[in-house]
Amino acid sequence: MFKGKSKGFKVAVIGLGALVVAAVVGILALGLTGSATKQQATDAEMTYTTAQAKEGQLTSSTLLTGTVKANEEQYVYYDATKGEIASIAVNVGDQVQAGQTLVTYESADAQSAYDAAVRALNKVDRQIYELNTYGVTVAETGDAETDQEAFSTAQRTVDGQMQDLQDARADAAAAVDKAKVALDDANVKSTVSGTVVEVNRDVTKSTTSSAQTVVHIVNSGSLVVAGEMSEYNLANIKKDQEVTITSKVYPDKTWNGKVSYISDYPANAGEASVASAGTGSGGSASKYPFKVALTSELGELKQGFTVSVQVNTDQKGIVVPVAAVLTDDDTNFYVYTYDKASKTIKRVDVEVGNADGENQQVTSGLNAGDIVLADPTMDLKDGQEVTVNDKTTD
To answer: What residues does the YknX-like barrel-sandwich hybrid domain cover (predicted)?
Structure first.
């Protein structure tokens, strides 16, 4: 009796369990169906904003770092080939003008060579003078034909001698010029006007390759900011662009300047070539020297300061909202254009330029007047029908 009841109880429990499972499955199925339906409804109801591609101007800024240096300065290095230094004509703090003698080397040998070259030139000049004055002398015989033949022969001889003397004079004049250069080299002159900031009177002949500075002159009234920019900045920064300069030493002050020079040749070309050859890759980005001329008062700005240079770039072109441009891999960019008649979108690949906080420059792929989705999502498809705010397409 007990066993029968037990068996029946188990059957009842199993049947109840099956009903519970079926109910749960049904509820989940209804839930999933409802969720899918809700998602479809959400997609169908989503409204996008559109914008018109238009001609516009955007401002972007590039931040560079540089060092304040003298635009005009001169280093006079010790030249052992000229011999010993006889005298240094300036002291630290002296104001010098371009063309002023700074350093004089022992020049006895150079002076002797120059004097000898001048004497040789003078000697040739005397010979030319004598040949011009007394060159053709013919003893006349009284016979016109004989005398004429003798004169012609003598004239040919004089002409040949004169040509030889002219050649000798050209060689002598070249020797004088060469000796004069050597003599002038004994007197090193200033190439800039400025202040003497360094004088070294203890230089000596050295077997090392390091250069020894004898005199250093700078023009402190002509400071520039010098630095190096990467190859990626070359497209956006041009000569004569205006810049703003700041220094951490005086954070509340700014200076104005203008880009005065950008090198066409990278400063680290040799290193980049070695890196590329050794690694098989492109190596680090090339660096191009640049200079910024200061256009405002120097004030507290001093030579040697490290400063920040902000270059503001204004560019005109086709612009769209920044959010309108999508990318798959930060290399290929695209937008969705909107056709009002069919209410569908089309994926259009574009090339981009600079951007500011609101607008993105599009350099190819769009024309002024094209309508694009201003807020596209990554799940949109080419040719998809979408709902948009009509006001933005008027």
So the answer is: 74-218
Rounded Cα distance, 121 and 171, in Å: 9
70-79 pLDDT, tens digit per residue, is: 888 899 999 8
For 7, residues 6+ apart whose C-beta sits below 8 A from its C-beta are none
Q: Which long-range contacts (CB under 8 A, 24 or more apart) does 281-287 make?
A: 285/230, 285/231, 285/232, 286/230, 286/231, 287/228, 287/229, 287/230, 287/231
Q: Cα-flanking dihedrals φ and ψ of residue 276, to 5°?
A: -65, -40
Q: Which residue has the tokens 């330029």?
A: 353
All residues at 6 or more sequence positions from 368 whose CB lies less than 8 Å from its CB, including other chains? 53, 54, 55, 318
Contact 70, 219 (CB under 8 A): yes
The residue among 352, 316, 307, 317 whose CA lies nearest residue 334 is 352
Which residues, in sequence order, are bridge partners of residue 228?
Answer: 289
Q: Strand pairing of 242-247 and 306-321?
A: antiparallel
Hey, which bits of 41-193 come out as E strands?
Answer: 47-48, 50-52, 54-70, 73-77, 85-88, 95-96, 101-105, 187-189
- pLDDT score of 219 more than 70: yes
Q: How far apart are CA 387 and CA 344, in angstroms?
A: 9
Q: What is the pLDDT of residues 250-275, one digit of tens each?
A: 999 999 999 999 999 998 765 544 44
Question: In whole angstroms, what is the distance from residue 239 CA to residue 64 CA?
Answer: 15
Tell me the helix, strand and coil percentages in the chain, rounded to 5: 35, 35, 30
**What radius of gyration do the chain's Cα atoms show?**
44
Q: Are strands 333-339 and 287-294 parallel, antiparallel or unpaired?
A: unpaired
Calpha distance 62→203 (Å, rounded): 45
What is the rounded CA–CA span in Å between residue 54 and residue 261? Answer: 34
Strand locations in 240-305, DSSP E?
A: 242-247, 254-262, 287-294
Report pTM: 0.48
Tell me the C-alpha distance between 271 and 175, whole Å: 43
